[in-house]
Design a protein that fits this description.
The structure holds 3 protein chains of 3 kinds. By secondary structure, chain A is α+β, with helices and mostly antiparallel strands. Chain A has helices spanning 15-21, 72-84, 190-208, 248-267, 313-321, 327-338, 342-351, 354-362, 367-385, 396-407, 413-424, 430-437, 445-458, 460-468, 474-484, 491-502; strands spanning 22-33, 70-71, 88-89, 96-99, 109-112, 119-128, 131-144, 148-152, 163-167, 174-180, 220-230, 239-245, 276-280, 285-288, 301-302. Chain A has 3 domains: 15-296, no CATH class; 326-437, no CATH class; 445-504, Arc Repressor Mutant, subunit A, CATH 1.10.10. In chain A, helix 3 (190-208) runs antiparallel to helix 4 (248-267) and helix 8 (354-362) crosses helix 10 (396-407). The longest helix of chain C is centred in the N-terminal third of the chain and has 18 residues, at 21-38. Chain C starts with a helix and ends in a 6-residue tail after the last strand. The chains are: A alpha+beta, B alpha/beta, C alpha+beta. Chains in contact: A-B, A-C, B-C.
């Protein structure tokens, strides 16, 4: 059979256009490093950043004669994850050996799970583009992580021998793999759905307390599968697997870039090669990895050094009963407690402000106040400073304090904004800023009396009208007093004083 | 014979009693054995490494404990030969392979630790077929060991070095491993007692894996009681080995002392006779069966129809597991590294090193295992073989409803000449014919000498098999046979071994 | 013939064994004989029979999530064919993971 290479001159088709003619199907394989104390099969520390090869022992180094013993907490965490993802938990399952040679794998096989995973058939709902998409989860299984190797030297052939340096500290750390089923029907939302899924999965893991899920540290790793089929076709296209996707933004961009690339190939009449591709952050594109037309045969067989894992119903139910509130449930609860509309919720989530608002409410503000402050004033200031909302140098408690001061009349909204400026500038707490800048609303009648007299004196015509009974004219006098006091007078009190002066009760 | 040789003729039980009683020091014992090794091992070539100072230090520690009035464990002070497949922190561990030549493990196997804790003096590491694959030690990268009965014959394998050491009185105790018969067959051809305990009975942590679901550490000794004492010393649950049994160690020492088989139901495996069995082996075997009857046992014939498939099943399962277990020997972290010239890739260095570092049998089994596990072949080969195991376990279960133990010859022939089967793998595999079923089902089996074959004067072994966890039964029957035959003979069988030249200056001349 | 020389060469490559032509010839013949012999297991009707791995079947052997002693980098690297700055030094890796 002659190999049909993709037409050399095919170029990517812009996303918006590609999506009109092709339907994407995506899939995600996510690896999560569990935050156990010890490694998966031995007592070495599960820690990040230790001196190379300082956290190893005969077992995780795969020394001749060593044997694995399963970390019970890793099993518990995996069951927790499976339950949170609505999976069925196997009543009996085994580990299997995945055999291949690679220097970062001490035994040249990885203890993993093959056809008997711990958790199967679950789902996770994600919000993308205003829609709820149910992502079906095929399986959640447990395996051991590999060591880390880095290439050293130049590629020059005459001098500079290339070699690699290997650190096995990471070898043997428990790794949970979550595999989705193919996700069809997302159309133009495919990149957003992929990102939303990984985000939600990450938040679930965090709420379960099973991992610190830091993509930048490698405790959450994501491979994205993408395939295209002509619109209306029933057959699935050839899929590519994209690796080295190291951030949420990259997840979205990787899907987008693959859709564009594959559309270009298909438009030109070529064939998409089923292969592993490597994502590049700088260019937001993918390049081919090792081309493997034939899938590698891992010669799986049940791990003979381990006995099966058979979680009892009792244990599983114990774990289920102890599950914390999951992100979706928490969001629903907050939405109800805070009395937020769906639109509000979306706005808050998009701005990453939900937790901040919730904390502000916990600190005493009303939901409406908290929502308004974070979505208007604070969002504006964050944008101006080029910061994430959560990075602003003001705490939810401080925002709540400002709201409270407005509520009691100690501050007007305008003054409150000045107080906020002061806090953001590092001048101290809201109360400290009020005191230092003298921003409190003035409510002392004696203090205000002088200003009232001045305003009356300066506007005799208006004063006369008020005296005649045209109460509404008092507004202009109030404005004058407000201006004279730099906005700090208690407007209502000023109005009272003016009326008292000019009218007989 | 001088006093030194006399000491080495004692049984382990006798040595332990003498040490405990203060009649002899552990150091004296160790020195006597080290001296004998220095004189005689050049003929037998049992040892790959002799511990020397470390052994004497261990002996001194035993003597110190005794002097301090501390209680001694049952085998304290007794010298032992350890198969070079167990990791030892103070001795190299080569597994009989060039790929691990000189490897110094950074940890002790659990078996090693338990032996040390028992006060046993490890004299050194013994020769073996490379990575435990073989039945003669001819697959050792360092040359074969020689049978003390006749130096031109094999001592069996893969634990041939330990067997040769014990049979030549170079050690009182030996530890081997039995995956397809590698303790029992050497025991049989060297005139020793060899036991494969129930799988999982003793820890595999630190036992360099050949076939994970089959490998079993066990004793090689000159008497059944010695084997029982050693069995107890090494057995018991180990949290470092997930496959190690939680059940208590069967009462093997008690059983070894109670050699009563009256009323015991003994089944002769019908499938283990006929063509391929040396006449002398069958003669001595049948006599042993008659002996059991005369001691009061009830003997019947039992058919185990699936035993015919045991050999092919074994030669699928063991290579499959070993192809995976031996993948770690890749020149990256320890062991031999060849071809690293700064230009070659890791893959090339791996392939070159493994090709040079592994012997032919190991390569064959790795490739066979890779084949059997390949996608498309798994169900027909490895998968099927694992099903055959269930059928064989079923045969045993059915048999043990009718009888208490099963018996057969341990191996079809006596010790064959060195070189005779070296180029014929299939012929070599046949040595395991009778021993393999117990590895596949995991139940306990013991080989006890039952005489010499008339045609060549070489030892024959009787194999006794018991149900899973009923290890004590094989000791009871083995002790009965040993006792009765010993009475008839009037002296231990091993005393008739005359292959080794005991003259002092023979050591210098004896070459290869 | 149950296995060809080419297939044996492929097995050798999968197993990271750089065999000589002479070895390939010899092993091909021997493996052919052995595979034919072990194929006998297929004669046994075993539909629906579960496989057996261990003599005594038990489940759920675990260790608690606690630390146990490490080797230390020195011991880990002591037997390494090559080491550099606390790492295992290995020849350049061609394949991507």
């Amino acid at each position: 059979m002659t190999a049909t290479s993709p037409t050399p001159l095919s170029s990517p088709v812009p996303f918006v256009e590609a999506i009109t003619r092709y339907e994407p199907v995506i899939g995600l394989e996510t690896h999560v490093e569990l935050g156990t104390t010890a490694k998966m099969f031995c007592g070495c520390p599960n820690a990040f950043g230790a001196e190379p090869n300082s956290a190893v022992c005969p077992v995780c180094l795969g020394l001749p004669g060593s044997l694995p013993v399963i970390n019970k907490t890793a099993i518990e965490y995996t069951i927790r994850i499976g339950l949170a993802l609505n999976c069925s938990i196997a009543s009996w399952c085994r580990f299997a050996r995945k055999n291949y040679f690679y220097p970062d794998m001490p035994k040249n096989f990885q203890i993993s799970q093959y056809d008997e995973p711990l958790c199967t058939d679950g789902w996770l709902d994600v919000d993308a583009g205003g829609q709820v998409v149910r992502v079906d989860i095929e399986r959640v299984h447990l395996e051991e992580d590999t060591g880390k190797s880095r290439h050293v030297g130049t590629s020059g052939r005459i001098h500079g021998a290339d070699y690699s340096l290997v650190d096995y500290n990471r070898a043997g750390i428990p790794l949970v793999e979550v595999v989705t089923r193919p996700i069809p029907g997302t159309g133009a939302l495919a990149p957003a759905v992929a990102r939303a899924y990984v985000t939600e999965l990450r938040d679930v893991m965090r709420s379960l307390g099973v991992s610190d899920v830091r993509m930048e540290q490698g405790s959450l790793r994501c491979d994205v599968n993408t395939s295209l089929a002509p619109a209306g076709s029933v057959q699935l296209g050839k899929r590519t697997e994209t690796k080295n996707v190291n951030s949420l933004r990259s997840v979205e961009r990787a899907v987008r870039s693959e859709i564009e690339r594959q559309a270009g190939i298909l438009d030109a009449g070529g064939r998409v090669i089923q292969e592993t591709r490597h994502f590049h952050e700088e260019t937001s594109t993918t390049t081919p990895g090792r081309s493997k037309e034939e899938a590698q045969d891992y010669r799986y067989f049940p791990e003979p050094d381990l006995v099966p894992v058979a979680p009892s119903l009792e244990w599983t139910e114990q774990i289920r009963a102890a599950l914390p509130e999951l992100p979706a449930a928490r969001r629903a609860r907050l939405q109800a407690d805070l009395g937020l509309s769906d639109r509000d919720m979306t706005a808050l989530r998009n701005a990453g402000a939900l937790d901040l608002v919730a904390e502000t409410v916990s600190a005493g503000a009303s939901p409406r106040q908290a929502r308004n402050w974070w979505l208007t004033e604070l969002s504006r200031r964050a944008n101006e400073a080029g910061l994430e909302l959560g990075a602003l140098p003001v705490t939810p408690a401080q925002v709540a304090r400002i709201c409270a001061m407005v509520e009691t009349g100690q501050l007007t909204n305008k003054l409150a904004r000045q107080v906020l400026d002061g806090v953001l500038a590092g001048e101290g707490s809201p109360d400290e800023v009020v005191a230092a800048r003298g921003l409190a609303v003035v409510t002392d009648a004696d203090v205000l009396a002088a200003a009232v007299d001045e305003a009356i004196a300066a506007n005799p015509d208006i004063a006369a009208k008020v005296a005649e009974g045209k109460i509404t004219a008092a507004g202009a006098l109030v404005g004058a007093v407000m201006k004279a006091t730099g906005g700090q007078a208690d407007a209502a009190l000023v109005r009272q004083l003016i009326l008292a002066r000019l009218t007989t009760s | 014979m001088d006093a030194g040789s006399d000491l080495t003729r004692w049984t382990a039980a006798q040595m332990a009693a003498a040490v405990a009683a203060g009649e002899v020091s552990a150091v004296e014992l160790t020195e006597a054995h080290l001296d004998r090794i220095a004189r005689i091992d050049v003929q037998v070539r049992a040892f790959l490494y002799v511990a020397g100072d470390a052994a004497l230090a261990a002996a001194r520690a035993v003597d110190a404990r005794r002097a301090a009035g501390e209680p001694l464990r049952p085998l304290a002070g007794v010298p032992l030969a350890l198969k070079d497949v167990f990791t030892t922190i103070d001795m190299p561990t080569t597994c009989g392979s060039k790929i691990l030549a000189g490897w110094q493990p950074p940890y002790d196997a659990t078996i090693t630790r338990r032996l040390r804790a028992a006060g046993v003096v490890i004299l050194g590491k013994t020769n073996m077929d490379e990575f435990a694959m073989g039945s003669s030690t001819e697959n050792s990268a360092f040359g074969p060991s020689h049978n003390p009965w006749n130096l031109s014959r094999v001592p069996g394998g893969s634990s041939g070095g330990s067997a040769a050491a014990v049979a030549a009185y170079l050690a009182a105790l030996g530890i081997g491993t039995d995956t397809g018969g590698s303790i029992r067959q050497p025991a049989a051809v060297c005139g020793l007692v060899g036991v494969k305990p129930t799988y999982g009975g003793s820890s595999r942590y630190g036992l360099v894996a050949f076939a994970s679901s089959l490998d079993t550490p066990g004793p090689l000794t000159r008497t059944v009681l010695d084997a029982a004492l050693l069995h107890e010393a090494i057995s018991g649950h180990d949290p470092c080995d997930s496959t190690s049994l939680h059940a208590p160690v069967p009462p093997v020492v008690t059983a070894a002392r109670n050699a009563d088989v009256a009323g015991l139901r003994v089944g002769v495996v019908a499938e283990f006779a006929g063509d391929g069995y040396a006449s002398g082996v069958l003669t001595r075997f049948n006599e042993a069966v008659e002996l059991l009857e005369s001691l009061g046992a009830k003997v019947t014939e039992v058919s185990c129809p699936h035993f015919d498939y045991a050999l092919p099943a074994y030669y699928l399962i063991a290579p499959s597991e070993c192809s995976s277990n031996l993948a770690r020997f890749d020149a990256m972290r320890y062991g031999l590294r060849l071809g690293d010239d700064g230009m070659a890739s890791a893959e090339q260095v791996m392939s070159q090193t493994r090709a040079a570092g592994f012997g032919a049998e190991v390569k064959r089994r790795i490739m066979l295992g890779t084949y059997a596990l390949s996608s498309g072949y798994y169900d027909a080969y490895y998968g099927k073989a694992q099903q055959v195991r269930t059928l064989i376990a079923g045969d045993f279960a059915a048999a043990f409803e009718q009888v208490d133990v099963l018996v057969s010859p341990t191996t079809p022939t006596t010790a064959f000449p060195i070189g005779e089967r070296a180029d014929d793998p299939m012929a070599m595999y046949l040595a395991d014919l009778c021993t393999i079923p117990c590895n596949l089902a995991g139940n306990a089996a013991l080989s006890v000498p039952c005489g010499l074959a008339p045609e060549d004067g070489l030892p024959v072994g009787l194999q006794i098999m018991a149900p899973v966890l009923a290890d004590d039964r094989v000791y009871r029957v083995g002790a009965a046979v040993e006792g009765a035959l010993g009475q008839r003979r009037g002296h231990p069988l091993l005393e008739e071994a005359s292959g080794v030249d005991e003259a002092d200056d023979a050591g210098a001349e004896a070459g290869r | 013939m149950s296995i060809t020389r080419d297939e044996v060469a492929h097995l050798a490559s999968l197993s990271r064994l750089d065999l000589s032509d002479h070895e390939l010839d010899r092993f091909a013949g021997q493996l052919d004989v052995i595979i034919s012999a072990v194929a006998r297991v297929q004669e046994v009707a075993a539909a629906g029979i579960p496989p057996t791995t261990h003599a005594v079947e038990f489940t759920n052997v675990f260790r608690d999530d606690v630390l146990a002693g490490c080797l230390g980098a020195d011991a880990a690297l002591a037997q390494a064919p090559a080491a550099e700055m606390g790492y295992f030094k290995v020849p350049k890796i061609l394949a991507e993971d």
